[in-house]
Amino acid sequence: MSAARDLSTAICDRNGDALALPNGFPVHVANMSLVAKSVLELHGHDMRPGDAFLHNSPYHGNTHMADHTIVVPVFHEDELLFLCACRGHQADIGNGVPTTYNVRARDIYEEGALCFPGVRVQQDYRDVDDIIRMAKMRIRVPDVWYGDYLAAIGAARIGERSLLELVERHGRETIEAFCAEWQEYGSRKMADAIGKLPAGRWSNSSRHDGIPGLLDGGVTVGVEVTIIPDQGRVVVDFRDNADPVACGLNLCEATVLSAGRTGIMNRMPTDVPLCEGAFDRIEVRMREAGVVGKASLPYSSSVATTNVADHAILAVQGVWSQVDYELGMAEGAEANGVENGVISGYDSAHDRHYVTQIIAGGTGGMGVFGHDGWVDYAISNGSMEEWNAIEVVEQKYPILYLQQELIPDSMGAGRWDGAPGCRTMIAAVSDPVTFMYLGDNQETHPRGANGGGDGSGQRAAIVDWRDLLADEQELPLFNSVTLQPGQAIIGMTSSGGGYGDPLERDPEAIRHRVREGWLSRSRAREVYGVVLEESSDCEIDVDATARERGRRPVGHVAQGVCR
Amino acid sequence: MSYALSSDVGGTFTDLVVADDQGVVGMHKVLTTPDNQVNGILAAISAAASASEVTESAFLAACRSFSNGSTVATNALIERSTARVGLICTKGHGDVLLFREGGKENPFDWDLDYPEPFVPRHLTIPVTERIARDGSVVLPLDEAEVRSAIKALRELEVEAIAVAYLWAFQYPAHEVRTAELIEEEWPGVDYSLSHQVSPIAREYRRTVACAMDASLRPLLTGYLERLEDGLREAGFEGSLRVLTGSGGIAAPSELVRNPLLSLDSGPALAPVAGRFYATAEFDAEDVITCDMGGTSFDVTRVTAGEIAVTRDFRIGHERLNIAKVDCRTIGAGGGSIARVDEGGLLHVGPESAGSVPGPACYCGGGSLPTVTDAALQLGYYDESYFLGGAMPLSRELAAEAIEAHVGSRLRLDVDQAAFAIWSTVCASMTEAIREITVKVGIDPSEYVFVAGGGAAGAHIGPIVEGLRGKAIIVPRTAGTLSAFGGAIGDVVREFNRSFFTNSDDFDFDAVNTVMRGLEDEATAFLKRCGVAKDLWDLQYFVEARYQFQDRELTIPLPHPRIESIGDVRRVVEAFHDMHDKTLGSCEEGGLVEFVMWTVRAVGRRGMTPGAVRENASCSASEALRGQRKVFFDELGRKVTTPIYDGALLAGGSMLDGPAVIEEPTTSIVVFPGHAVRVSELGNYLMTVL
Q1: Taking the domains of chain A in order of start, what are their residue ranges?
Q2: How far is B43 from chain A (nearest CA, A)?
Q3: In chain B, residues 488-507 whose CB comes closer than 8 Å to chain A
């Protein structure tokens, strides 16, 4: 988890309400109060200083089994004042198969991960060895897990120490008054921002591809958003969605909540403080059990933080294009394919087995009003995840990156383009390597908005990379495959959808993209109606452009292409 | 008499410090001349000459050395006005500079453009080649492709070529061969090789460092030539030195070899000054140096006599692995603007009123309240004695601005509103200090604090008290800390190389070969800088982590070589200790992986502190200028407070807070419970009782 900054922290007040959520992934932190409240419910009566709780149960407020959350109570003179939480995504958690996402698990039993529903893992500042021993027995690479566990405990303990210092310095009364006032402040800021929006009710949906043999029809996430400016409130209603499914794609309370909040926060002013006071003004309604609802036994929520959760965010943020043209945003690309796959196997150079998720190469940010799509995009973490350096990954694992480059002409065209897709090619050199990945965006591409074209589709393929003439063999997008030395896997992410009519795109921006090799001259002409001269500077032929743009019908096709 | 001169060219002011063997004899501030910074330096020299009542050429003839720190390179990177560079890189990886390392500051912010790559794609040419982690050649270098890439870049009229291949930090053969091909195909063109600029794993950081290196060289070459010509023409015959971001000085040719050394060279010298004062006054080795001017607050740390260094340097949108003094900068200064948002929260900075229109009290048309306005309202400054009386201030305008924008919104009277502004900025500065101490496991309470910059004197006492510190020095050179650091700084540079090994299977031969190589580079550097051998000091470090984790810590090595299992064990124990201290946990018995090796070359110069307060002979009571009402929160109101004329206070003078000491460029507020003594060296030593 440390490799990709797939780790988030929070300080909650004594009620479990989040006070401070510094720089965390939205899917981790926009719901942190749930896990804190769950620990209070389970242990409120017997909690003591020096305790720490390990929580990964999506049935009790956590995100999914692979997110191990450490919750530490902070006491001042025997009175509970705060809870510090630190949540990190573990690559291996003892699943039935060596992956962090067990998508094929029909239920929690087949999923196989060890479930820790708010379990006391430290007492008097020391590990409860029974729990650690259980975990080490059932986790394939126990040392890496234990290293990450210690890091999370360390972070929470540093939080505990610092908070106590703060209380010592300023006195408990001042701190308590501040906590209350801070939530009030968040609430006022959010009310003020919502107060400036138009009133109304809008609905939208976003679809995850079908998965052959698992979920043939795919999952469509529907949502209804109601903005009530005079109350400073937004209601995000996910209740009109399907029953739970017999695989790991079900969401849970935490990820439905964070999806609803994230879709709204994506267009709120950036100075709204991230605390419960602000979040509380976004009410998220969901079913007690459902694929886009609370987790329910025996169904599995192994993959509750990406995939369907991503579409839940996209469905909500897509509403903005209907609310106001100047707030609108298209759909961004799903990046949970080959490039961000879980790899496993044996590395003969280090003489060890490994399971890890590699993080690099997702992109396809959506066009939004005023800006082209963000490159280095990822939906559920707001693009905060850090990409692995190729040299660092190659040092640790027996894989070799042959390519990681953007795909020209792939962008969903718009007045503001989606970001292009990315082509990643990874070879097995000395040892076989197994890739598991959960792609999407093949049947339904990231959709453009308000005249913008859809993004390109996602692809996966395998090739014998030493043979220049070898053909690439297409692979399924939901897949597990073992590469033999000499073989390489190719992942191509989707591009983002475009926003606004491509005929209104600034010709200078098109010239820049052509010059920089993102866009071909022919596509500049066909899709954007911009004619460039053949010189290396790509000067704009103003007259020809005016003619070309003048005769285009509005609403022509502008979907990105993946070659 | 022979002088050492040191100049620091900042965004607004060019500072010049004149020192002789006894210590500082003059400090001069002139406006920076952005078009040609050399003109500003020459103007400062004129000012120094006339202060000494000699001609410029006679003055310069008496100068044995001249050190210069400049923002030329930093500004050029920020303004993107560096030379046009072409990049040759590994095929399949032409977007290393576009993708960077992913990440985004605010997860919910989409109202922003993605930053363009440092080298545009149309000047980036990937070529076939690939070396794997074990050094095996997966794809040989395609020399025909390299030759045509060079031709293409020549046609594209680049001014320099950067070459950066994957794994070249450990296996540089393909870069070395590419260099030979460049010299054949385009003799004379300037080029940079990534394994020479930054032989460290992480392809993006190494590639961008290499491209920046290539893009800055023409600029720095030109600047240093202009500087040298200007000084020689004016009559300077001594040796020219440059300040570096490593917190030291070096020969100018070093900047041409390695232009990245010049980044951040201004703030990097402040801790050198801080360490000097802490040693001179208290014989202390742990020092926090704060520099607070009009728009920003810079803070640096010295621990056990060593300036804290970071190897994670950020500039604009880019991140480099180069060793720099770890300097935290926040947008908090006298000009920082206070505002109350819709939710009723008070913010101070980072927006600044600058010098135009300036704080409301400057009478320059500014209507927004600033930190300076708050300090004036609280009585910390004198309306008629700001900058020694050169600039009259309006208390009335300050009060109006505070009342209109803060007081009325928060329902506070004007003193309370001013205090809220002042204490908010103090809290931000305290937090910046915590960033480089508490957050890396260091307790600042035992540190000596050195405060520089015009605005620091009115804030430093409560900041240090909040950190539970006790000792503060406000030096006489407070206004020119960095330039003073340049006058006394050592020759310093760090040499790094990635090499992976671990505690179970330690590769003694390879590590010692790496160390020997780094040592050779370090000693060659000291020789080039003309440092006598008896003044050399080589220091050794390793970056280590638990195996397959990502967070590395820097561990000092007690010996230049690692020769036995026992040597390895001692390093491992030091690593466990530091991990526990800084990251809150440690894994006894865990496998430790070593990833990067460092040799730091230091050429000691050594300078004795000298007294600068020869003319002051008054006791505290004789230096009393008057009194005025000053607000102190501890007392809950404004109280009549004595005001002292700092220029008159003799060494040994003592006074207790509440009091205000006025100096021409700063105002030192002594809070209740704090006391000040003027040292024999002429510095103010403040104590939190």
Answers
A1: 2-187, 329-499, 502-550
A2: 44
A3: 500
- Domain carrying residue B527: 491-603
| A146: contact with B, CB 8 A cutoff | yes
**B478 touches B265 (CB < 8 A):** no
Residue B144 lies in a domain: yes
- Number of domains making up chain B: 4
Q: A with B: how many residue pairs have Cβ under 8 Å apart?
A: 185
Based on the fold, state whether residues B83 and B207 are members of the same structural domain. Answer: yes
Tokens of B25: 């004899």
On whether both B145 and B86 belong to a single domain, the answer is: yes
Could you report how far apart the first and last alpha carbons of chain B are, in Å?
Answer: 43
Query: Is B9 in the same domain as B85?
Result: no
As a whole number of Å, the CA-based R_g of chain A is: 24
Position B618 scores a pLDDT of 83
A486 in B contact zone (CB under 8 Å): no
Residues 6+ apart with CB under 8 A from A16: A33, A36, A37, A39, A40, A83
**Hey, what are B498's tokens?**
């990635």
Q: Whole-angstrom Cα distance, residue A281 to residue B321?
A: 43
Q: Kindly report the CATH number assigned to the domain that includes residue B33.
A: 3.30.420.40
CATH code of the domain in which B118 resides: 3.40.50
Q: Is residue B671 part of a domain?
A: no
Residue B181 and residue B82 in one domain? yes
Between residues B174 and A556, which one has the greater pLDDT?
A: B174
Angle between helix axes B395-402 and B414-435 (nearest 10 degrees) is: 80
> Closest approach of chain B CAs to the CA of A145, in angstroms?
10
Predicted confidence (pLDDT) at residue A391 exceeds the cutoff of 50: yes
Please name the member of B202, B548, B590 whose beta carbon is closest to the beta carbon of A389. B202
Exposure of A367 in the CB half-sphere (CA atoms within 13 A): 33
Q: In A, residues 230-289, which contact B (CB 8 Å cutoff)? A: 262, 265-268, 270-271
- In chain B, DSSP finds a helix count (H) and a strand count (E) of 19, 35
3-class state of residue A356 by DSSP: strand
Residue B460 forms part of a structural domain: no
Taking the CA of residue A559 as centre, how many other CA atoms within 13 Å lie in the half-sphere pointing to its CB?
Answer: 12
- Would an 8 Å CB–CB cutoff place A185 in contact with chain B? yes
Give the whole-angstrom CA distance, residue B641 versus residue B518. Answer: 59
- The DSSP-derived string for A67-110 is EEEEEEEEEETTEEEEEEEEEEE-S-S--SSSSS--TT-SSHHH
DSSP symbols for B4-67: EEEEEE-SSEEEEEEEETTEEEEEEEEE--TT-HHHHHHHHHHHHHHHTTS-HHHHHHTEEEEE
pLDDT at B240: 92
Judged against a pLDDT cut of 70, whether residue A558 lies above it is answered with: no
Residues B108 and B202 in one domain: yes
Q: Which residues of B touch A154 (CB under 8 A)?
A: 583-585
Q: Are residues B5 and B108 in the same domain?
A: no
Q: Are B12 and B492 in contact (CB under 8 A)?
A: no
Residues from chain A contacting residue B200 (CB–CB below 8 Å):
none
**Which tens digit of pLDDT belongs to each residue from A138-183?**
998 888 889 889 989 998 998 999 899 899 988 999 999 999 999 9
**Residue B590 maps to a domain:** yes
Number of H helices, E strands in chain A: 14, 20
Asked whether the beta carbons of residue B120 and residue A392 sit closer than 8 angstroms, the reply is no
- In this prediction, the residues of chain B whose per-residue pLDDT falls under 70 are 1, 11-12, 606-615
Does ipTM come in above 0.90? yes
Nearest to A405 among B94, B344, B549 (CB): B94
Q: Are residues B168 and B91 in the same domain?
A: yes
Cβ separation A376–B121 shorter than 8 A: no
- pTM here is 0.90
* Residues B165 and B88 grouped into a single domain: yes
The domain that holds B550 is classified in CATH as 3.30.1490
